[in-house]
Amino acid sequence: MIAITPPNAESATTTLDPKITARNKAVAREFAGQFVFLSANDPEFDRKIGHIAAIGKSEETALADLTHAAMTRSLSRDQQAANGYSAMANLRTIVERLHPGGDDKALQPRKFLGLFPSARRQTGYFHRYEVEQGAIEAALSTMKASRDFLLLDTIAVNRLREAMPPLLTKLAESVHLCDCIEQRLEKLATDIDASDPSKADALRRDVLFAARQRHMDLMTTTALAQQSALTLALVTRNNTELVKGIDRATATTIAALRTAIIASQTLTQQGLMLDRIEGLKASGSSLIEAAAVPLEQSAPGDDMAASQHLAALRRALDEVSESVDSLALQRSDHRPV
């Protein structure tokens, strides 16, 4: 029984078709029988030994090509993932600078001559968003580039994974054929030990050794290919999780910016101008709408509404931090020990 890893499962086993095993036994019997009539000094003897090395060669080469193709993508994949994580770390730093904190000082209006409220402090706070807009756009743009690359990479990796199971099945057939040849050669050598000990010795020394060596090589190739399949499965999972993390971080960032725009109108009677925010659309539109709609329904100038805006702004920025932090934790969990 040869273990095979299909693209839609962590691990699975398959048993060779009985027709294949019967055919392999017949081929092995015929192949071993040809050495009965050949002298060890006959060039045909060596030529037939060379046939053993060709067993499973095409599948071995194809699997090696698939593994190479997967490895050549790994450097670009790692770089894009690193870019995405770095951009999210930058976004986390920006959010920390924008967060109003819990003491309300950043948004408490000063009083002119101790009597008349002034919105200068609040206006200064919301001006931070305009100052940070370029950095936010750069972070989101880098995250989007990483996301797009990882989506395409997942498609390419899945194609490689889909090509592996048929090759592994054929390789399992070759492993079984080598095993059958070994058994027939051992029986043949035992049968002629008494009548032709020199030929029996040549069979064990040259032919049986070649069959065992090829058997071992194919088993090694099988193990490496199965490990590659498991690695590619892990790659697709990590890609998917990182894409989801980028989507969530982007969506919560847009939601926070939309919340800040609405809050600035309420708290300072002056709209925050983030002129390119509409170009930063994310896939999580429901998150954006959930953060924005309740605020838009509040009446500007109302003290309770202002308090609600401030709470919503803190909550929105906290959600950005949480989405970035959860992805950072995911990254540390997947790092090799």
Summed up, what is this model?
The protein has 337 residues and is mainly alpha-helical. The protein has helices at residues 18-33, 43-53, 57-98, 120-191, 197-268, 285-296, 303-334, and strands spanning 2-4, 12-14, 110-112, 116-118.
Task: Write up what this structure looks like.
The protein is mainly α and 337 residues long. The protein has seven helices and four strands, in the order ββαααββαααα. The chain has helices at residues 18-33, 43-53, 57-98, 120-191, 197-268, 285-296, 303-334; strands spanning 2-4, 12-14, 110-112, 116-118. The strands form two sheets. It has a two-stranded antiparallel sheet. Strands 3-4 form a two-stranded antiparallel ribbon. A hairpin with a 3-residue loop joins β3 (110-112) and β4 (116-118). The protein is rod-shaped, with a radius of gyration of 34 Å. Mean pLDDT is 81; it is low at 1-12, 110-118 and 282-302.
N-end to C-end Cα span: 32 Å
Strand content: under 5%
Shape: rod-shaped
What oligomeric state is this?
single chain
Q: How many H/I helical runs?
A: 7
User: Mind describing the biggest β-sheet?
Assistant: 2 strands, antiparallel
Averaging pLDDT over every residue, what do you get? 81
Q: What helical percentage do the residues reach?
A: over 70%
Uncertain parts: 1-12, 110-118, 282-302
Rounded Rg: 34 Å
Number of strands: 4
Strand order of the largest sheet: 1-2
User: Helix/strand-derived class?
Assistant: mainly alpha
H/E element sequence? EEHHHEEHHHH
